[in-house]
């Protein structure tokens, strides 16, 4: 009996593409909300989980746990990326959101240090490890899903919605924080108010789970699954056949991830701990800044569809290399909220040259059979080492009285990525994305 020929997937309409991208993006928003709630509320829950000390010392402890979560991201990128390449993008995204839900719920329910002693920070670390595993798999799989769902002419635009929803998750976290700050006293925020956003995150993850279970699988994966060889080597072995592409992902991520975490998650603490703004003022400035960044993502994504990916990356590389030191220096001396917002808006403009298109650039480097793992694993390794530690390095430099060293550290990493952008081909023209 002869084997049946592969059946090509039916032609996908623009409306069906948009529905799938919206469903995937909403799930992505919930994932990143859960991830960033930790950073947004660490100013309030750090005293609950760690022994009494000065603010910088407690923030160092919470930043260390934040970094620990990043250590699980490479493992998540490996396991979930391989799972997505073997069993489908949709299946991996469902598992990812379940892990994130469990981590948020654990943080919400864990008693403080005064109640259970050292078990409190231990459980906090465990919850963060679950979330790190989840978000490590989320990035590569969602980047692959959105890139494969988009059509060739608008791939940069549609793929930019990964960071639209990523930033939207941060904005949602800050919105919840601002609402709680208005409705609760400072004492209530420190006592129990910080637990509310984690409960919201766990509940929202269940909504994301429902949406992801009803998403379509991508045509690229369906076609590849029909053509898969029975004796296919392991996914990791397949990935190692693309060393140049792996190093390119590492190089183009290095500067981008440090700049991103410096001017988004760390900026809120910098405004309080260095510039001298109140927590409420820092929250509002961060909220408006992220709103600006969110609007910029699709604009830069659409621009890359017209002029290519490489010119947009070069804009980021040059801007971050030349602009980080003056921006951070002036931000530390800002004497008004509008001055701080203006400086961070410039940083968001520069940063968007990376954030808007980095997902599609990485996806275009790899073939379908190894795309989710190829995007996710080297990215997660780079983010774990450099992005996850950025906040800790910044706070440690401040603790040692050499805060400006951190500015130059960010500049050096951005310069290394600039070299990669200068030498790499434009993946829009030379990439491996089908369709």
From TrEMBL:
Alphabetized Pfam families for the sequence: MFS_1
InterPro entries given in the database record: H+-coupled_symporters, MFS, MFS_dom, MFS_trans_sf, Sugar_transporter_CS
Task: List locations, semicolon-separated.
Answer: Cell membrane
Q: Membrane-crossing residues?
A: 59-79, 91-110, 116-136, 157-180, 192-211, 246-263, 283-300, 312-332, 338-361, 373-394, 406-424
In terms of superkingdom, the source organism counts as Bacteria
In its UniProt entry, what is this protein called? MFS transporter
Domain (Major facilitator superfamily (MFS) profile): residue spans on this chain: 20-429
Q: Topology in the membrane?
A: Multi-pass membrane protein
The principal localisation class reads: membrane
Q: Which family does it belong to?
A: Belongs to the major facilitator superfamily. Metabolite:H+ Symporter (MHS) family (TC 2.A.1.6) family.
Naturally occurring in which organism (per UniProt): Hymenobacter cellulosivorans
Q: Which UniProt keywords apply?
A: Cell membrane, Membrane, Symport, Transmembrane, Transmembrane helix, Transport
């Amino acid at each position: 009996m002869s084997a049946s020929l592969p059946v090509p997937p039916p032609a996908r309409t623009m409306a069906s593409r948009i529905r799938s991208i919206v469903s995937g993006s909403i799930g992505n928003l919930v994932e990143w909300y859960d991830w960033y709630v930790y950073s947004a509320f660490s100013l309030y829950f750090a005293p609950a989980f760690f022994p009494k000390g000065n603010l910088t010392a407690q923030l160092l402890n919470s930043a260390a746990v934040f970094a620990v979560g990043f250590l699980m991201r490479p493992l998540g990128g490996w396991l979930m990326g391989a799972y997505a390449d073997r069993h489908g993008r949709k299946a991996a995204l469902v598992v990812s959101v379940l892990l994130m839900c469990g981590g948020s719920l654990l943080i919400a329910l864990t008693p403080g240090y005064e109640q259970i002693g050292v078990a409190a920070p231990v459980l906090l670390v465990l919850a963060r490890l679950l979330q790190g595993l989840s978000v490590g798999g989320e990035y590569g799989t969602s980047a692959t899903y959105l890139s494969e769902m988009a059509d060739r002419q608008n791939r940069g635009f549609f793929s930019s919605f990964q960071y639209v929803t990523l930033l939207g998750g941060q904005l949602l976290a800050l919105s919840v924080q601002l609402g709680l700050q208005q409705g609760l006293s400072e004492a209530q925020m420190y006592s129990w108010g910080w637990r509310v956003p984690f409960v919201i995150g766990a509940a929202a993850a269940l909504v994301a789970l429902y949406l992801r279970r009803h998403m379509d699988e991508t045509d690229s994966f369906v076609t590849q699954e029909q053509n898969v060889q029975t004796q296919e080597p392991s996914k990791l072995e397949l990935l190692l056949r693309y060393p140049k592409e792996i190093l390119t992902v590492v190089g183009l991520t290095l500067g981008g991830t440090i700049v991103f975490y410096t001017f988004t998650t760390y900026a809120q603490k910098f405004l309080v701990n260095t510039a001298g703004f109140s927590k409420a003022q820092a929250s509002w400035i961060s909220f408006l800044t992220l709103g600006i960044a969110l609007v910029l993502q699709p604009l830069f994504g659409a621009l890359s569809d017209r002029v290519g990916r490489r010119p947009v990356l070069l804009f980021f590389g040059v801007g971050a290399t030349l602009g980080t030191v003056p921006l951070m220096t002036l931000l530390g001396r800002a004497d008004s909220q509008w001055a701080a917002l203006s400086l961070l808006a410039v940083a968001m403009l520069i940063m968007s040259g990376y954030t808007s298109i980095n997902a599609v650039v990485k996806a275009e480097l790899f073939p379908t059979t190894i795309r989710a793992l190829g995007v996710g694993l080297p990215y997660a390794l780079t983010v774990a080492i450099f992005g996850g530690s950025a906040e800790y390095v910044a706070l440690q430099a401040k603790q040692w009285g050499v805060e400006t060293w951190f500015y130059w550290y960010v500049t050096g990493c951005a310069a290394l990525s600039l070299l990669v952008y200068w030498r790499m081909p434009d993946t829009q023209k030379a990439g491996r994305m089908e369709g």
